[in-house]
Amino acid sequence: MFSGRYGPHRDELYFVTAGQHLAWGYVDQPAFTPLVARVVSTLFGDALVAWRFPSALAAGAVVLLTGLIARRLGGDRSAQLLAGSAMAVSAFLLIVGHMLSTATFDLLFWTLISFLVVRQLQGADPRGWLLVGLVTGIALHNKTLIAALIAALLLGLLAVGPRSVLRSGWLWAGAGIAALVWLPNLAWQASNGWPQLSLARAIADGSSGSSQPWWLFLPMQLVLISPVLVAMWVPGLVRMWRAVELRPVRCFAVAYVVLAVVFLVTGGKPYYLAGLFPVLLAAGAPLVVDWLRRRSDARAWVSGGLGLSLLFNAVLMLPVLPVRVLADTPVVDVNYDAGETVGWPAFADTVAGVFAGVSRAEQTRTVVVTENYGQAGAIDRYGPERGLSKAYSGHNAYFDWGPPPDTSGPFVVIGFDEDFLRTVFADVSAAATIDNGVGVDNDEQGTPVWITRDPRGPWAAIWPSFRRLG
After folding, report:
1. 259 and 385: one domain?
2. What are the recorded GO MF terms, alphabetically (predicted)?
């Protein structure tokens, strides 16, 4: 219903371009999401609804799996429905289910692996560990963060058991399958100097637009799903630790605590823990259902809580409001990603206007250089219809796709500090300022656009100074 409103997110623009440069890995991610972007953009062109359809399917699968986990954890039909409904109205699922993102598929893989592991720990055919390994190997081609889940679960098994699982040859055979499936990306990382380690350090230092101060990490756990649903997942966490019938899966409670500490200490983003919320909601749902059956007024409280969560989260996380009033609301302050879907056509219009001011004799050699991958992706998406050639950027994987040719120039440069540009070019002049036209204070609003000439050396020499990770 809302997929086509506003516009593409900066990450979506980047993924589509990355999909045109398929590789076993990139400095900031493995290949899964760019591959999905390549498929949908090849089949459906620039249709934004089509770009986001795989994410909607993934979100639906997360809801279904949450209900299935609730069944494995002793929930009846009512508990399964409640767990799935709670996940469906959660803030994090609504936002990642609305856009093409590594986080979308990461949430799906965390939930699927959690379901499979719960099933194995409850006594399923031990050969099922082979499937766990296969899914883990595929998940590692989307985001290496999944390795943290596996490590935390293993630590949980060592700490609270059942340790007998660790003696299963099938488990270690599954681990071998995961490593084998992951090997192409692992080899790419090794041959390129392990760039994702450098990226992780950059994110920990706050270089990502979605990074948060460390002291917000724990409070954000209360709002990632919904403040109302804290009353379900916190009891679920306690139940996983204390309930005798859940003793085989107690390692999930340990994993949550371990990962919370690790991500807090290492500067991880608050949403890194979101992949465990389906399990915690599934564990808490039977407790809420029991409460419903003991109190005559409880149904109204639960229905109201879910409805309030849906209303609150939908307004904040989905493009429900008209874009013209967005700047007058707290939406962008709460939901950074909403702002990053606004203003890209106007952005491209401004750049095209600067390009049009260059003499006709120079236009054939003029190229666009951007400070970040969102800007570059927008030029690659909207530029051709405005007479612009492809963009160059030193941000993340764009850096690896190369600098402008030495025969190019002048340069329409977007962003950067003037002092930096004067160390790179002999001639720098301000040309325009980005304005999205609706007053939304996003990363691009107020960004300067420059015309530069005469690089102070060949691009091979100056290109490293443009590199940025985050």
Report:
1. no
2. pentosyltransferase activity
